[in-house]
Amino acid sequence: MDEHFLLKTPTAQKLYHEFAKDMPIFDYHCHLSAQEIAENKSFNNLSEIWLQGDHYKWRALRSNGVDERFITGDATDKEKFDKWAETVPYLLGNPLYHWTSLELKRYFHIQTPLNSDTADEIWDKGNELLQSNELTARSLIEKSNVKGICTTDDPLDDLQYHLAIKEDATFNVKVLPTFRPDGALTIESELFNSWINKLEELNNAKIGTFEELIVGLGKRIDYFHEVGCRLSDHGLDTSFYKEFNRNDLDVIFNKGRMNDELTIEETTQFRTAVMIELGKMYAAKGWAMQLHIGALRNNNKRMLERVGPNTGFDSIADFSYASDLSNLLNAMEYTNELPKTIIYNLNPSDNYTIGSMIGNFQGETPGKIQFGTAWWFGDQRDGMVDQMKVLSNCGILARFVGMVTDSRSFLSYTRHEYFRRILCDVIGDWVENGEYPADFDLLGKIIQDICFHNIQNYLSIEL
């Protein structure tokens, strides 16, 4: 993994080192904690900064036969780190091996491969740097040349930490919220009523009808916008479009409020109606809407009950949603109220579905409807290459808004390096094969736009 890692051709090497390498980062979708950034969190050891909350690593550890005690259990941090060190050498071909090596190299200046024999040495050296406060939350962001971050936030959040960061003149990175209204869409959830009750309290207004719900959500959108939000995010894991009668929405809403049993048709109709109304409000604000489609969550019931959700027991769903997506976008487009939209698909078999769909609704803004970067299980070299090639075949790669970490870790910015190397390698191959001229002024601009400028312009955010 030398300076030309993943760069097979001279053209790829030139594109990366002269144009991509030093570009700043706008990480417009992640799950970092605004509180940890506001408080400039320090980390006690490598296990805390590297393993806590990382379900990618947890899945690998389980696949290597590691007992849950050393993953999410009560083992010491050193014991957990040692189990990770035992596992890393077996990750041949897994992006975790590349990420692990890049993170050690970029942040801890460690080029020694991690394994059982080197674990103690790397543990001591890494912890020494962490104790020196060289690698706090903010310093990691700054060392990574990050200029902007969009966290993922519940509409009920008071955003106090985003406000604190905004008012702190000592930190020049913009940390902006993202509006993630899962609580308003999942009427079938046992948590729906408590979420609506909290929304009522926040707005000091009763919510007894569907229209009152939309008004209440609009108030939170207004507040998020004032704090700097320019993005929403939605996880769509099941069917998300069903024709509805406007008069039936109050009936469905009241059934949800009374905890009466709802049919699948009713929950889908409700989700459809809320999504359309939200989309129209996003468009009015000039926001972009992110759609993450296709996760099959919490597959292992025993482990869900033991360690909870978001712990590494999710996988790829295979439901068909081309018509749902077309109808949802068309419902907003027909009244000229479709917001800028970034669509991420988890199932790679849907690449051409998304790649072809986005062309139906373009206009006004270059790349208004985006095929989002390879996501989650696709967040590796093959997945990224496939996504870029489908986007190129069906649309305009040069307008692509690029990479996100989608991570809870402050060490994950090396994923942008990983992405940029792969991007330059793909384009380098095309040039070397004679499929595109070796116009490095134009190629350099395209590379830098994808790395940073496109998303900045797309969201109209000055960094």
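(the above was protein one; protein two follows)
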Amino acid sequence: MERLFGDPPRDPGEKVPLAARMRPRTLEEIVGQHALLAPGSPLRAAIEAGRPHSMILYGPPGSGKTTLARIVASTSGSAFEEHSAVEAGRAEVKAVIERARHRAEGTVFFLDEIHRFNRPQQDALLRAVEEGLVVLIGATTENPRHEVSSALLSRVHTYALEPLTEADIRELLERACTRGELGDVALDPAAAELIARRSGGDARVALSALELASRGGPQIDVPAAAAALASGLVRYDAAGDQHYDVISAWIKATRGSDVDASLYYLATMLEGGEDPRFIARRMMIFASEDIGNADPAALTLAVASAEVVERVGLPECTFALAQAAIYLSLAPKSNAAGAALSRARAEIRERGALRPPSYLTSEGSDGYDYPHSRPGHVSPQELMPPGLEDARFYAPDEAEAKLAAALADIRAARGKAR
């Protein structure tokens, strides 16, 4: 898709969405991104000087990535070519580059969702970027360090955009009404607050909700705003960074024994359409990693909830997930098992896997002292490899008091038996 400046021509009968009509055309019109576009900042200085450079714009939906790319092109007098990596392939990229070769003015190539390109597709852009044939502006909601090839990253600047604040969103809503974009309508401050709070920092969501709410009459009140927002209360990308951010929040809240926060983040994932099997898997991992032997029943319950997810499915399986989240939150916590294994693995990485004593191997089992023939079933034999007789990996914490007592008794008995 090629154009020199601004938006493409539209059919006169086509109704342009409010979000498109409100798109900023200059840096001064941009709302938010105060740090990124502060006076004297590198990006602002480059744009104002008309010297664009290739970049990756990384940020959540509706934070202004496309708008910023268009302003870069218009300020520098460059042709603007736009494609989405979801629909474009190497052929489309080659066509953009070929057109750029025959232009006197520069070309800004905006590639939305650049993380959708595989590595060979991304690498196809390298020479054009190096030669300056195009100024590549890639946009992504994913962390570019994970999704963009290192070869391409080394040739561009990466800029992180923040979600718009509630104050930013309110400013946009008030600007739309003040400019008369929706006709003669009045926006209730409480309705503006509701839209700003529930739009998740996404300007498109906020402006679309405002436009829909305005169709109910000249007064946009709280009920009208709530109705307009009803289909998009939760912004959650189950395939992107938010997928990891919210499960991370759930893990940390549950680890911190905050049952209400645990339930809140569980609800966020479920309302956002997260796969319940993913949640159940994380619960099983949590039960071993963060609770362990402080409460072995936690793993049993987590496994049972995963079984319910598989056998029952949505929506009824959510009760089992809620039950597990509550139990895991309130259970005593211990990471002693994982820490013990980490210490044992570190020993092996440092010294290699030492051979066990011969009487523990299949060839030398005749010399093995059978613990069940001993009082208390404690073996007097040395069971560690030679050289590791004094190694201690497991250190029970205060949540594993019973295991700590048992360990002390066993170590004492083994010492006496020798």
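Reviewer note on protein two: The longest strand covers residues 79-84.
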